[in-house]
Design goal:
With about 260 residues, the protein is of the alpha+beta class. It has 7 helices and 12 strands.
């Protein structure tokens, strides 16, 4: 019986350029302290990307000419654990023009299996269109996310023949995470699409991920999530708290999850 391999994934909205550069040292410090194996970022800006690059010298990230990879979202991975197979970006119809469902297919070196890692930033509840029309764009964005991930990592053909050892192809593990700006309908749609959130999977209580006080104000909400599907397990899940003095790295708190993959 083989032992599962574990890795740590983190999703973090790094708050555009607000209160920058005074947050730079705090952001660098929390990433050096946490050292996630996979990191998904939202509200990226060139200045924050420089800080993240410096804090994670053992990691690679996507290099792509699509503007959103530099000014909205990106994905980092530890190069000793993962190799990049391919990457892409799917339009979900977010009202911010450079936002996408950003994804990478990574090969996990210890097991040889691939993992599809994806991230998105769904539209903010306070956007003018939603206020005027009274309709949440996150419902359609969640549905398009499920559709896109099903297309990128489809279920194996149930009628396919088994291999020489009598085993059938397993579904590829999929991770989806990000700032979803929702706790109800978008989450319900993702769950109905076969995804399990890390809080539920690990038996952890929901903890507000926004705001990080006293750095930012607002009503406490669970806005940031990690979901998974396929042969991968969430072992632990927590919402990180970090301050450098009285300054947090962002107005959001990161969601950090330990996953287990492989093993029998």
């Amino acid at each position: 019986m083989s032992t599962p391999h574990r890795f740590v994934a983190m999703t973090y909205n790094v708050w555009e350029s607000a209160r920058w550069p005074e947050r730079a040292d705090a952001l660098r410090a929390v990433l050096e302290l946490t050292g996630p194996d996979v990191l998904c970022i939202q509200e990226l800006r060139p200045a924050s990307r420089e800080v993240i690059d410096a804090a994670l010298p053992t990691h690679d990230r996507v290099e792509d000419e699509l503007p959103g990879w530099a000014c909205e979202g990106t994905i980092y991975w530890r190069r000793a654990l993962f190799d990049l197979v391919e990457h892409g970006a799917e339009h979900l119809g977010q009202l911010s023009p450079e936002r996408r469902l950003f994804w990478v297919r990574l090969r996990h070196r210890p097991t040889g299996s691939t993992v599809l890692v994806s991230t998105a930033h769904f539209t903010w509840q306070g956007n003018p269109r939603e206020r005027e029309e009274g309709v949440s764009p996150r419902v359609a964005e969640a549905r398009r996310t499920v559709e896109a991930l099903e297309r990128l990592a489809p279920a194996p053909d149930a009628d396919a023949d088994a291999d020489d050892d009598g085993e059938r192809e397993e579904r590829e593990p999929v991770l989806f995470m990000g700032d979803l700006n929702d706790t109800v309908n978008a989450i319900r749609i993702l769950r109905a699409g076969g995804f399990v959130d890390s809080f539920t999977a690990s038996g952890s209580p929901l903890v507000p991920t926004h705001p990080a006080r006293p750095t930012a104000d607002g009503t406490p909400q669970v806005l940031d999530w990690q979901f998974h599907r396929g042969p991968i397990r969430a072992m632990t899940s927590h919402v990180g708290e970090y301050f450098r003095g009285d300054l947090a790295p962002s107005d959001h708190k990161p969601v950090v999850v330990t996953y287990a993959i492989g093993g029998e």
